[in-house]
Design a protein that fits this description.
Blueprint (H helix, E strand, L loop, with lengths): L1 H5 L9 H13 L8 H5 L3 H20 L3 H14 L5 H10 L3 H13 L1 H4 L3 H4 L3 H9 L5 H15 L1
Helix pairs in contact: 2-4, 4-5, 5-7, 6-7, 7-10
Pfam family, one: BTB
Protein name: Kelch-like protein
């Protein structure tokens, strides 16, 4: 192995911030996610998306290194801070890495904001299986939307 000769390990496709957070977790047994509270107060969605991306990278790394507790901490953090822009990409990642918790969270969150999400380009790329699960959480329900269209048109006449 090359690591034995060179005394170094090369990680490809791993971001420095994520690796640093893994090391902090290993040495301190604490999870220090990027602080999102200030960004939420300031409505800084760019920072929130970037911190979500870092946590998603950390989630993937924790799966790779089989660090189940860290993976769960990432799931909880994402469920509390995930921006709407990141929900559909996170849904795809949750499917890839078998995260039932994140999957259910994404289905619920997208379903509860169904009207806004159905207008997005990435929503149209979702698989039928995902759409069926999202519709279980759809709000307002499709029956209400149909009723509103039907009786809204009658009231216009």
């Amino acid at each position: 192995m090359q690591e034995n000769i060179n005394k170094e390990i090369i990680f490809k496709d791993i971001k420095f911030e994520s690796l640093l957070m893994i090391l902090e977790y290993i040495y301190s047994n604490r999870f220090f996610p990027p602080s999102v509270e200030l960004a939420i107060i300031e409505k800084n969605t760019t920072f929130i998306c970037n911190s979500n991306k870092i946590i998603l990278d950390l989630f993937i790394l924790s799966d790779y290194f089989q660090m189940d507790r860290l993976k769960q901490l990432c799931e909880v953090n994402l469920s509390q801070t995930l921006s709407h822009e990141m929900l559909i990409p996170t849904l795809q990642i949750a499917k890839t890495y078998n995260s039932e918790f994140l999957l259910e969270f994404c289905y619920w969150e997208i379903g509860n904001n169904f009207i806004n999400f159905q207008k997005r380009k990435d929503f149209k790329k979702l698989e039928k299986e995902d759409l069926v699960k999202i519709k279980k959480f759809q709000y307002p329900p499709q029956e209400y939307i149909d009723w509103q269209k039907k009786y809204g048109e009658l009231n216009k006449q």
